[in-house]
Amino acid sequence: MAEKNEQPTPKKIRDERKKGNVFKNEGVPLLLLITLAMEFIFMMMERGIARLQQLFVVALSFMTLPFITAAKRLTQLLAVELSIFLAPVLGVAIGARLLGNWLQFGFLIAPESAMPKFERLNPLQKIQQMFSSRELAELVSSLLKFLTIVYASYSAVYPHINEILHLAASLLMRLPQVLRNLVSDIFHHMLILLAVWTALDFGLQKYLFIKTQRMSLEEVRRENKDTEGDPHIKSYRRSLMMSPPPMPVDVPQPGEVLKLADVVLNDAASRVVLLRYEQQNIALPHILFKQQGKDAVSGLLDSARALNIPVIDAPQLVHLLMQYEIGQAIPRQAIAHTAYIYNQLQQMKTREPAPE
């Protein structure tokens, strides 16, 4: 089996994209999700704390009600408030997830990736994937992210440890502010470390993905042959393009070729074709000259009659021969008609009286 050391070609990447096989790092959407969701929570925290305080007041007003009724109403109020608070956060999280994927591989619809494949049910293939370099890299990445979160939490909480210990003896009104500052410190410490680690993990995962897409030299050659054609034909075409253009061929003048013509064929559409047959050199008569246009044809016919060159009306044959170039032999479908004309010319020559 040939080693795959060549970088993937653009066509290879496009084909894999159609199958849904694109590079995707889960750390990028996760980083965006945490950043946007937490920032949104911090923006809504003041309002949330105010609403929570109002719920405490409302809960005190339920003290005169039966316990079951009060618990039911309080649960309903909590559910409504949590829904109002979490619905925008959930929307931001979904948007961040979609944005993170779009930034990596753009808009993609790959129905082929959703088709059921029996290879996915193969347990041996699953085991191989579990111990592949990509899966091991993701496992190490997840462990390091967990350690990052633990370290960020510790480094943020440790400076406030004395304040947290004395919080029980302080006023209840200070609790929301202390918690907000503590969560904010933990989040920003964690965000910085996650951003650094995500950048490193992104580069590693990108390298591993490109490595799985590498091609052998034979695959590259086969793809080039399929897309650009055989290299030998391609080289021949390139040599033709680089070769100098052919010299222009001078178009013969009517007066020069008329003396060489055996017969002049004309039709009612003011077109003429001059034929010549050299039995020693060519097997078939060839087109010596052709002309169209009323004035030009009229002058050519007068010159032919003055030189005693036979002029024959053959509209169908003229129409056929006008489609071919000067110097070409008559086509196969014109052989019978042309042979009949040359036979008539031969009979005319035999009936002519011999010169005295």
TrEMBL record:
Domain of life: Bacteria
GO biological process terms on file: protein secretion
Keyword terms, alphabetized: Membrane, Transmembrane, Transmembrane helix
Keyword Transmembrane helix: yes
Transmembrane segments: 27-45, 52-71, 77-99
GO cellular component: plasma membrane
Name listed for the protein in its UniProt record: Type III secretion protein U
InterPro entries in the cross-refs: T3SS_substrate_exporter, T3SS_substrate_exporter_C
Pfam families: Bac_export_2 (PF01312)
Ranges in coiled-coil conformation: none
Membership in a protein family: Belongs to the type III secretion exporter family.
